[in-house]
Design a protein that fits this description.
The protein has a four-stranded antiparallel β-sheet with strand order 4-5-6-7, with no helix packed on it. A three-stranded antiparallel β-sheet has the order 1-2-3, with no helix packed on it. It has a three-stranded antiparallel β-sheet with strand order 8-9-10. It starts with a helix and ends with a helix. By secondary structure, the protein is α+β, with helices and mostly antiparallel strands. A hairpin with a 7-residue loop joins strand 1 and strand 2. The radius of gyration is 34 Å and the shape is extended. 12% of the residues are buried. 23% of the residues lie in helices and 28% in strands. The protein contains four helices and ten strands; from the N terminus they run H-H-H-E-E-E-E-E-E-E-E-E-E-H.
Length: 166
Amino acid sequence: MLMRESLHRLNTTMPPVPRLLPLLMIVLACFVMPSPSNAQTPPNPVCPSQQIQPKPAEFQPDGIILTTFDGAAIWVYNIAGGNRYPLPETVPCIRNCRTSPDHLWLARMDSENGFAFYKMRFDGTQRTLMIGGAADVEWWNDDTLLVWTPDQQAYLVPEATAATAP
């Protein structure tokens, strides 16, 4: 009787974790051991097996990069010429600069003039009003603009008539 009371007291005073330890180890072994289907499948390679290809001799760098070096103007870096220059009378584009589909024009917002969008060549010449009172403008195609108004309405407007649109 004394032994039975001792075992009963031992079982009731033991914390539950040591009693569940064998069961916990069996459950963990099921998760750690690979399943037969996974063991036979090789992992997918993440990186390509080829090295980075060198540029061919006939490759000619070209294009421009729009950036800001001084925080005061839009700068153009001409890759082929290896030079950079600021566009006069511009402020850096935060998010409202777009290139035309033919890559000959830069559309930018001029917030000093009532949220008007102008287009200009990448050398800063031929500045032309595109549309006034717009929150954002993007070229939809070669001759149509997607215009977002400040009240979040979107319109497709022919570029030829955009400057006179209400």
